[in-house]
Predict the structure.
Amino acid sequence: MVLGFYKAEPLSNVTNHLHGRKGRTFVFVDGIDSMLTRDELRAVARAVREAGGKEVHCLAWEFEMDLRLVCHELEASDGVTIKLIPIPREIMEKNRTNPPPFLEMAVLEAEVICRKAGG
């Protein structure tokens, strides 16, 4: 159901960590009402790399705190681009036929600037 709304094709050889493809990108869908963890994300990145992929979209209901930092580490070490995409709750609506928007998880980046007082 989630893959269909996301407009991804199911893989013919589904694994625990790779469920579909959207173009050349692999898609992972986490379990209903579960949280995507660091360990799961590492396993997904490893599976993508082993399958020869370069990018994965991880669709989940919730994400472990600071998971984006783990994404940066994995992208640097494994060479796999990772997008974290929350599954919209609207897909659970009865009689829904049109897909709701799937938006990548927002990231806030900041730079620390220190200045001396009075100078």
